[in-house]
Amino acid sequence: MASIVFEGVEKRYPDGYAAIQNLDLTIEDGEFLVLVGPSGCGKSTALRMIAGLEEITGGRLMIGDVVANGLAPRDRDIAMVFQSYALYPHMTVAENIGFGLSVRGVDKAEIDRKVRDTARLLELDPYLSRKPGQLSGGQRQRVAMGRALVRAPKAFLMDEPLSNLDARLRGQMRAEIARLQKLSGITTVYVTHDQIEAMTMGDRVAVMRAGLLQQLDTPRALYDTPANLFVAGFIGTPAMNFLKASLEKGVNGLIAAAGGFSLPVPEGVLGQRPALIEHLGKDIVVGIRAEALTIADELHGSTGAVTGTIAFIEDFGATKLVHLDIGGAGKLEEIAAEADEVSLSGPRLRASIPATYPLRLGDVLNLAVDPLQMHFFDAQTENAIRD
């Protein structure tokens, strides 16, 4: 096992395109770190640089206490698990798992022992004599993991390994991979574009955008305290609502005024985000998660209600995701997950409502926002307004 450290690492191609820009990132020994972001953000390039499959054009990469920039892939003691599984169809499960050991000249008895130990851990014992074509997608993925695990490498690299599985199997394998990583204690770097995988699997998550690291933190911290608009919009399902507003003085204190309605900004919020006062009279962006909105009628006349017409309802069983048309009251924005820019999505607000509450299309609904759950961003820099 080993730590992996990026020190100002860059990847530039001959045409000048920068896939990775000045990446500083430390992956601790034994940590499960997820690299997440939209297509083209640089996450797979970073993974391939660890593996030695992509040349580093600037900075330094450390694997353990060794500078790995010039090391050949075979000398890095890294095991990769690919999206395609890359199993040999003519070999049995046992032969596939033990293949890496056999090419290294490991004794046959030792290979058999390690293969059986690994198969037991992955619950593949009954399938050791089968060929990959006789296995389900989830079983083939476990064989691919077994081939990496049996070597006991310094680190695992996983490049979107679950993207070929259906939704049910992906859920099962997320838990399985996380369990195996904890049992093995091997440093693991996992690449995905799926923020649900990132939030449920990683000890920490590195959010990438256009070759730049946006934020590195625990899943909970990313959700609760996103560093900027991009992270706030990318992390969380459904995506955070964004309202363009201006911070103004109201009758009873500060308000975030957005078109035809205003949201109170009480002293408690200013205590948590003292830098907000510096934005008085300026444009800001207010972020509101769907669960921070509550039906105003149940709050007995709470101020700061947002009124809209129900345009669409998604029923998730325990909750309903209600899409409210708020007309010209304010412009909402949504981060486009597959793009680098913030794009207007129209005057819609998404709210998570208990499934038992009676709702119909066309109903007018009053919602109140919990001020302590609001997020504030500088309209120019897109960075979070905090201290």
Strand content: 25-35%
Overall tally of structural domains: 2
- Give me the CATH superfamily of the largest domain: P-loop containing nucleotide triphosphate hydrolases
* Global geometry: globular
The CATH class of the largest domain, by name, is Alpha Beta
Stretches with pLDDT under 50, minimum 5 residues: 329-346
Characterization of this structure:
It is a single chain. Strands 11, 12, 13, 14, 18, 19 and 22 form a seven-stranded antiparallel β-sheet that branches. This protein has helices spanning 43-51, 93-103, 108-121, 137-149, 167-184, 195-201, 219-224, 229-234, 267-272; strands spanning 4-12, 18-27, 32-36, 58-63, 66-67, 78-81, 155-159, 187-192, 204-209, 212-217, 241-250, 253-258, 261-265, 283-288, 293-295, 305-315, 319-325, 332-335, 342-344, 348-354, 364-369, 375-378. The protein has two domains: 4-233, 3-Layer(aba) Sandwich (Rossmann fold), CATH 3.40.50; 238-378, OB fold (Dihydrolipoamide Acetyltransferase, E2P), CATH 2.40.50.140. Helices cover 23% and strands 34% of the residues. The protein has 387 residues and is an alpha+beta fold. The protein starts with a strand and ends in a 9-residue tail after the last strand. The relative contact order is 0.12. It is built from nine helices and 22 strands.
